[in-house]
Amino acid sequence: MGSVCVEELLGELQLFGLGYEEEEVLEKLVELCMTHRLSQSDLANELVAFTAAKEGGSLLTVEILNVFEHEVLNRKVNKARQKKDNRYSGIKDIHTIQGLIDVEDEEENLLDAYTTPSKGSQKRNITTPETPRSKRTLSTCSPYLLFSPNSFSPSSFFFPSSYSATPSQKYGSRGNRGEVVTSFGSVQDNSWSGRGGHGSSVKLFGPPEQSLTKSYKFMFQKFRDIREVLFWKIEELGDALKKHYKIEEFTSLLVPSQVVVMEGINSTGGKLVASKLYEGVPLPFYQLTGQTEDLEQQMVLIACGPYTTSDSITYDPMLDLIDVINKDKPDVCILFGPFLDAKHEQVENCQLTRSFEDIFKHCLKMIIEGTRSAGSHLVFVPSLRDVHHDYIYPQPPFSCYDLSKDDKQRVHFVSDPCTLAINGVIFGLTSTDLLFHMGAEEISSNSGVSDRFTRILKHVLTQRSYYPLYPPSEEMNIDYENFYNYVSLPVTPDVLVAPSELRYFVKEVLGCVCVNPGRLTKGQVGGTYSRLNVRRQDMEEERKSPCIAAQVVKI
Predict the structure, then answer these.
(1) pTM for the full predicted model
(2) Residue 117 in this model has a pLDDT that exceeds 60
(3) CATH domain 171-216+286-554 topology
(4) Is the peptide bond before 546 cis (omega within 30 degrees of 0)?
(5) What number is the average pLDDT over the span 212-241?
(6) Could you tell me if 182 and 504 are in contact, meaning their C-beta atoms sit under 8 angstroms apart?
(7) Are β-strands 425-429 and 418-422 bridged in parallel, bridged antiparallel, or unpaired?
(8) In whole angstroms, how far apart are CA 456 and each of 185, 257, 435, 437, 442?
(9) In the CATH scheme, what is the homologous superfamily, with its name and number, of domain 6-84?
(10) Where in the chain are the domains?
(11) Of the chain's two ends, which shows fewer C-beta atoms within 10 Å, N or C?
(12) CA-based angle 102:106:109, to the nearest 5?
């Protein structure tokens, strides 16, 4: 679903006499809308029905919303899954499947017979929030006029003067530009300007065979290959737990998504009564081995697409970000996709007259040439929502853009996920919304950690994987052979960047500074980006986080 309008949601609740006192209630309501893909009115209706049977239910609290999510929303998800699993149950051959399609076509043709000729065919596009139209079915060209060949010029940013290229009014009229919405560390004593990449070193961390650097063939894996990957992953984590907790012997058990060791009694042969749980332990941090030469502070800017608002394709937010880069001159800019969003309405409706790849190339050209004077290193991380790119995870780096000789030193195309070393500071990067995916699958929170984001991030670090969820989200297309090779964490990163549709944050989890910069746009309005000051420490000092300060800022 699209972005959640807080004002509309509050209006729906006030209409039925529901109120609140804590600001955290608003954040929880937005989180429920996003996690369970509910509209504002649907959520309000469910809440009214739920609170009607509760005493004092007219005043919403975070505790009431947690009970509501557990008793109502999670049960709806389980029922929906059971219904989906039972639909068309049984073994179907190609003739049976074709028969179902023919029956559906006959029903639609019957409906068409009752429509007037002026309306023509009323065939339905069967798309839902749970099963959106795949970007792989979208055409790369369309007769509709939005982009034209004559509009591809740096001066006009290749937009014709048509209705679809009109800048977003809501975005242009925003009044909170540059507002700092959250901070971490010693922000008061820090200057938020870099040296334009002078003296910066950006490189992939680890040996070359552990980094995904080119495209690969996919859709060839077999179920037994997936089984083998999961088996070896469980064995590796099991051995790590065995050594850490000094356990002499145990029997391997598969727990969906999470690998743990449990101590208990299985007296009946069909049920294990657990008495003790050994959770995972994170990998060690990277330790510098040689003499450090440059301990200068580095400024890192992080932004995540979409770079256009949902009601326009003019890339005004991207141009504003380029202005920020030229003004602050960060040493490194990490830019996550999508750069041309598969979920954008004008992309879904095929209203582009140039190929997706051409538009993407011009988009990159504007970023690279527009920041050349700043000198900042640019790191481009792809997204599964990049409509022109390989729809597979792990996702190879962009390869369709040819760099000039001058730009090759400062522009870096990396995979999703990847691990980077920026002047000795280790950054873990993934554009996949693992917070959203894992938050929707969480079934127990009796870990003593009340904050959902902290629980999920701790799970990521202790499971030693950029995506420790199985089965994966329905929108994920995973190649498990390459998953085993490229998705494991090589070390615990100093900084983990995990952009999400959920609320932005900067927090320290198990010694790792975790950042959700938010998205540069949220529907028709501006979003946020993040900036960090980092500095690697002398190897003789006791370890402390190299992230000196961090902020999330409104674009």
Answers:
(1) 0.72
(2) no
(3) Purple Acid Phosphatase; chain A, domain 2 (3.60.21)
(4) no
(5) 80
(6) yes
(7) antiparallel
(8) 22, 12, 7, 10, 9
(9) DNA polymerase alpha-primase, subunit B, N-terminal domain (1.10.8.530)
(10) 6-84, 171-216+286-554
(11) N
(12) 135
